[in-house]
Amino acid sequence: MQGLDERTRDLIQRRVLKRVKEIPSLPQFVVETLKKLDDPKSSAADVSNRLSRDEGLVIRILRLANSAYYGLPRRIVSVTEAIALLGFKTVKSIVLSASVYQFMDGAFTGYALDRGQLWKHSLSVAFVARHIAKKVKGEEEEAYVAGMLHDLGKIVLNDFVRFGYGIIVRLVEDEYMPFMDAETQVLGFNHAQVGGLMLEQWNLPETYQYAARFHHNPEECQDVPQTIRRMVDVVHVANAVCLMMGLGIGADGLQYTLSEAAMERLRLESIEGLMSEVVDFISQVDEEFRLGD
User: What value, to the nearest 5°, has the Cα angle with vertex 93 and ends 129 and 180?
Assistant: First the structure.
C-alpha cells in the first residue's frame, strides 16, 4: 500500500519542521530555575524565589510534591519546603513535569487520545522509568524526566497524523506494521523523530533527545555513550509496560514491539514481572493525573 504522493509528503515534512521551530521553548525563568537547581551553591530559597514568578507552576509543583507517590509525612505548603524535603534532583524533575504539562493536557485525536490522556501516559512512563532505573542502579530522576518527555513529538505531529490517519491505520491493520513505521511511510516523519528535534531545540540534554528519538526502536540507537543507550532502553521498556497496562494508550500502541535485547541489556527477566511490580504504585498516577483539575 502506498502512502501520500511524494509532493504532498515533502510539503508535510517542511510544515512539520516549521511547526517544530514555532513551538515555544520553556519559559526563561524555568530555564534559569533549572540552572539554579544544578548549582551546588544554590539554596532552597534561591530556587523558590525563581519559581514564585508563576503562580500556576507553583500550584502544580505543590500538587505533585503532595501526591501519595512521594509519601511525605506532612502536607507541603511552600516550594521552599518541598525543595528542603525532596532535594534538588527530585524538585528538578517535578519542575520539568509541571512545565511541560501545558503542552500535553489537550486532546490529540490524531493518536486517538482524549483530553489529558497524553499527560497521563507520559506521567505513567515517567514513574515506571524511575522504578526501572532504581532496579538497575541507574539515575532515577533522569529516567523520570526522560520518560515524561518521550512522546513530546505528538503535540506537533498530531494534526498531520490526523490528516493521514486512514492510510496509516490501513497499513497497521492490513500489513501489521507498527504505527510509528506507518507514520514514517505516510508522512516522512514520526513522532519520535519530531520529539528528538523539539528537545534539541529546547537545548535539553542529549540523554532526553535520544530517549525520545529511539524509544520505539532502541536497536537503532548506535554510537552513543553507554549511559545514553541505557536510558533509551529504560524508557523503551517503561513505555511498553504502560502500553500493556492500558495507561494512556493511543493509536500508536498498535503493533508495538518490545525489544528483548533491551530487556537483556538491562538484565530484566520478564515484562510480566515488571508489570506486577508497578501495579501497586501505578494507581497513584490517577492522583497525579488530577494535577490540572
Answer: 45
